[in-house]
Amino acid sequence: MNKLVESADAAVADVKDGATIMVGGFGLCGNPENLILALHRKGVRDLVLVSNNCGTTELGLGVLLKARQIRKIVASYVGENKEFERQFLSGELEVELVPQGTLAERIRAGGAGIGGFYTATGVGTQVAEGKETRLLSGREYLLELPLKADFAFLKAWKADTWGNLVYRKTTRNFQPMMAAAAAVTVAEAEEVVEPGALDPDRIHTPSIYVRRVVRGERYEKWIERRTIRPATA
Q: What start-end ranges are recorded for coiled-coil regions in this protein (predicted)?
């Protein structure tokens, strides 16, 4: 039951070229920083990433993008990364833009074994192109299909060695759904404790969904765009 591995590099050792990976985080908040860097060091390529966005030009998942390790990304926001823009416009990067709520529900559906769901979000836009539609109660809906992955890379605030995870505030974001939708879930945590040390009522992701845990280190906790009030006289 001890799922603690010795390093982030060991935690990603079985990731192969072409793997589909869900990565937690919202912007640069809650990124699994150690696992991203380990994946960069491993040098795997042609990755398909499912995440809220692709970080910034120099930080977060942008590290993998800049190294040309990503073939396709499924995301809901891409506005902070100039290299993303360049690769997309030049045809080097495949992009599937998904409305944020739809992205979360597609991931949840993948973990829950749901074959698809109907949503009104995106009707009449490019999001609807090529998708089945249905009229329900006088309103048009799109059929959206679930998302699944080979791996999920998550960032927890606390974990125990069994793999139970607790996220801190906003960093929870898409991560509980991703844990259920991947064949192998790897979590890094700021603090790793012994079994029984976490309050069972406060566990956000049960250990049954987690294959490996690694103790994170040297967190930067980046800020995408620092905004401060002007100095007053």
A: none
